[in-house]
Amino acid sequence: MPKTAAEIPRKSIYRLSIYQRCLERLGENGVETVSSGALAKAAGVKPAQLRKDLAHFGQFGTRGLGYNVEALNAVITEVLGTNSLQPVILVGVGNLGAALSRYAGFGKEGFVISAAFEADPVRCENADAGVPVLPAREMSDYIRRNGVKMAILAVPAAAAQPVANQLVEAGVQAILNFSPTLLNVPDNVIVNSVDLALELEHLSYFVR
Amino acid sequence: MPKTAAEIPRKSIYRLSIYQRCLERLGENGVETVSSGALAKAAGVKPAQLRKDLAHFGQFGTRGLGYNVEALNAVITEVLGTNSLQPVILVGVGNLGAALSRYAGFGKEGFVISAAFEADPVRCENADAGVPVLPAREMSDYIRRNGVKMAILAVPAAAAQPVANQLVEAGVQAILNFSPTLLNVPDNVIVNSVDLALELEHLSYFVR
DNA sequence: TTCTGTGAAAACCTTCACAGCT
DNA sequence: AGCTGTGAAGGTTTTCACAGAA
Q1: DSSP symbols for B79-130
Q2: Domain definitions of chain A by residue range
Q3: What is the reported pTM?
Q4: Per-residue buried b or exposed e for A87-99, using 16+ beta carbons within 10 Å of the residue's own CB
Q5: Distance CA B22 to C1' D9 in A
Q6: Within the 48-77 window of chain B, which residues sit less than 8 Å (CB to CB) from chain A?
């Protein structure tokens, strides 16, 4: 029974990306059909959970057989909206930002960082980034002209909130935030924060 | 009512790190006392949740007043085990790995990467890392000699599992994994995976 | 009064187990 | 037989709401 976007759990959406990556690999290996058991194992979840996740969007399997790899991949691509390639911008070309600009992993999942922005003029010149680095003052304009909806934020903590405000103001709807700060944004904007130091600290609890 | 480590939800532990960071800031600003409401707001959670999280470990507040910033910070530090500084190693000094080796955020939370390891001899020489880069074959030995319990894994996907095996074999108990792969490790080893491309892809679902 | 600590309720998520299709 | 789709059960986490301490 398909549901409207709002009621699908965020965790299911997250796992969809994982399933897709597994399907991609299966496809490359010429596998045409996969059971929920096999796919779930590859993704590191239980079979029932995989089926429940897919059930949010409809019925795609064949009983007794499993799922068609290519077809299921297409469905997930459609659901995630990764068929229409979104332009993504990067803000902050410091240590981490520069690395992200060259990170091949984004490309493999179909994302291309179209431009980077940096407030420090010296860094603008010297940044060894994989993309054009533009001065920060051109950012809002660029976002509007190119209809940019997604941004990666890799600026120092102190600058994160003001920059986020600018992004939102210019029309950005989703922010992947690497600054160790809580961002305040309107409800219609989604933030996904990756706090590297926190992830490390989290581990230390489990080490005796 | 204090509980044993096993039954405390991972999510609570995770939030403890966030609370601590907020307490740190409050302390720097000379604030001595904070209510669950104020601290929860700073951390981006509900007051009741903060209190429940703390309740796992004991009672630290004063009714009608709130929590002593310094004392609560000390309790959380004790719980997380961040008082005794753990040595952390980094494996893989490619694009992302090199950036992580210089990432100042780790230092702020009290972590120091003591050494990095890299299989490619050319990279070993040229890596512009903030720490000594040693050849991969010395890794197991280094781990054993220095009692390293935590590792950051930033190698290509194909190398992730074999390297993880080596780490576990040598005695590493916690791995922060940046490779887009599911790692199989024994139950006594904990893995925290940060999949950058997935985090970005996740956002795209919410962008119309 | 203020604000914590906590049972109870609600919301949410996962897993089971089996009916039903191929 | 094999495997999906799903109601129902089970488990976990969050939120409420209030009793009780300062």
Answers
A1: HHT-SSPPEEEEE--SHHHHHHHH-HHHHHTT-EEEEEEES-HHHHHH---S
A2: 5-78, 86-200
A3: 0.95
A4: bbbbbbbbbbbbb
A5: 40
A6: none
The two three-digit tokens of residue B172, written as one number: 């590493």
pLDDT tens column, A37-90:
999 999 999 999 999 999 999 999 999 999 999 999 999 999 998 887 889 999
Amino acid at residue number B185: V
According to DSSP, the residues that pair with B177 across neighbouring strands are B153, B193
Please tell me the class of the A5-78 domain: mainly alpha
CB contact under 8 A, A194 and B199: yes
Q: Which CATH superfamily is domain A86-200 in?
A: NAD(P)-binding Rossmann-like Domain (3.40.50.720)
The pLDDT tens digits of the residues spanning A92-148 come to 999 999 999 999 999 888 899 999 999 999 999 888 888 999 999 999 999 999 999
Q: How far apart are CA B139 and CA B132, in angstroms?
A: 12
Query: Residue type for A133, please?
Result: V
In whole angstroms, give the CA distance from residue A76 to residue A79: 5
Please, what's the b/e burial string for B34-70 (b: 16 or more CB within 10 A of its CB; e: otherwise)? bebebbbebbebeeeebbebbebbeeebeeeebbbbe
A95 vs B88: CB contact, 8 Å cut-off? no
- Interface membership of A168 toward B (CB under 8 Å): no
What is the distance between the alpha carbons of residues A96 and A7, in angstroms, rounded to a whole number?
A: 35
d(CA B94, CA B119): 10
**Among residues 74-103 of chain A, which lie with CB inside 8 Å of chain B?**
79-82, 86, 88, 95-96, 98-100, 102-103
- Residue A143 tokens, joined: 């976002």
